[in-house]
Amino acid sequence: MNLTNINTVKDILSRHGFNFSKGLGQNFIINPDICPKIAENGNAQSGYGILEIGTGIGVLTKELALRADKVSAVEIDSRLMPVLAETLADFENIKIYNEDVMKADLQKIISNDFSGLKVAVCANLPYYITSPIIMMLLESRLPVESITVMVQKEAAQRLCAEVGTRESGAITVGVNYYGTVTQLFSVSRGSFMPSPNVDSAVIRIDLNKKLLLNEEQEKFFFKMVKAGFSQRRKTLANSLSSVMGIDKTVVYGVLKSLDIPESVRIEALTMEKLTAVSNALMSS
Ligand code: SAM
Fold it and tell me: What does the alpha-carbon distance between residue 220 and residue 138 come to, in Å, rounded to a whole number?
């Protein structure tokens, strides 16, 4: 079954009485070049189990299953279950979980389904929840090699920005702490049904085997990063004192000891400086 043929897709969806849900970010890929490219760049290969988030009608799921040993996919919309039973009927290496990815026990899915395999995440993410999903995947320290996802172009720019520049945000710090991020290719809005108002891009995060901070330091670090970026126009001392209740003089003391001006904003700090400030604040 050709899941990038518009007439085939329309026929399946109408037979199942399916209407797209805007709220669930349902824009399905209909450009035949995209899914093979995501799969090939996303470690879908022999020796791998792939965790997919948001199957839609299974257009990417199928390409992943053609290349990897196993695919386990989490899809929130129960109306898609009978559709997937039809579109993916020929595959024995796909398991679908009808769950909200933010509530699913991904650790358990990985250990039950992918024993003896390397693991990678691939997805065309629902745009309304891109950053929370990426942060959840990173923070839960899943045993995965890479996360390859399609996101809105603007989100890709933020994810791929350099830490310490105006384009960066808390999510930029997150991905750069846990791994190395690369922008792979752009995807035009016309590649989807229905077509969204924005273009997209596919990025890959290759995860670090070793992390810079221990768990306690890491917890404080992300608290500080989130607090700083939640009021990014304020100076670091002002945002940390208003969000975290840290005395401004303590922040000034730490900044001085690290040769950083008192007026600094969080967006100007590099990864190295951010971790140094965080560790010093934690022990002061
Ligand atoms: N992979 C398909 C494709 O590329 O055509 C569909 C991608 S569509 C952008 C996003 C999919 O994620 C939809 O099928 C939607 O129902 C699903 N979704 C939305 N929120 C979700 C959540 N919290 N947990 C799991 N799936 C979700």
Answer: 16
